[in-house]
Amino acid sequence: MQLLYYVKYILSNITKLLAMSKIKYILPVFTMLLLFAACGDSSNGPEDIIPRDVLILGDWESVVHREDGNIVTNADFRRFEFRDDGTVLIEEFEEDGSPIDDIEDNWTLVESDEKIQFGTEGLYDIIEMADNSMTLEYNSLDPFSGEVVRHSDDFLKQ
Questions:
Q1: Which residues contact 93 (CB under 8 A, 6 or more apart)?
Q2: Which terminus of the chain faces fewer neighbouring Cβ atoms within 10 Å, N or C?
Q3: Domain with 79 in it: what CATH number?
Q4: 11: part of which helix (H) or strand (E)?
Q5: Per-10-residue mean pLDDT for the chain, 158 residues long?
Q6: DSSP 25-87
């Protein structure tokens, strides 16, 4: 709005400014304002941000799995299909792609959209979420030692 005000002011008073030889001071400032306005990136405005409850919808496949910060190679992988009706299909596969298990569950975003609450899978922290990738962290008990293991999975949207 201020830029528009300055443009109108300069245009309405251009003859006075020329007559007073102050245009040599105003013209560079005016040019810089136009340059900044033209080069501004309007695509990052708040109205362009996709809400997480929309961004999460679709099919996601885990590509990297970590346990307590260490990358696990030859690990099973998971596929999530988040649906807009609040349900999710969670499929687990062997490394070779053989199915292990699948679960139909419910999901909802909680704590200011920073966590996913599943009906049976528990609470997952959303570490990062973009158009085509996300990182989730969650805790589970080690079936052998009974200790809590912190998992982190990187997912790509399919």
A1: 76, 77, 78, 79, 99, 100
A2: N
A3: 2.40.128.20
A4: helix 2-12
A5: 64 63 61 62 64 96 94 92 97 93 96 94 95 95 92 96
A6: HHHHHHHHHHHHHHH--GGGSGGGPPPHHHHT-EEEEEEEEEETTEEPSS--EEEEEE-TTSE
Domain that holds residue 16: 2-40
Q: Are residues 112 and 153 in the same domain?
A: yes
Token pair in block for residue 84: 């807009």
Tokens of 102: 């699948």
* Torsion angle of C-alpha atoms 78, 79, 81, 86, degrees rounded to 10: 0
> What pLDDT is attached to residue 48?
75
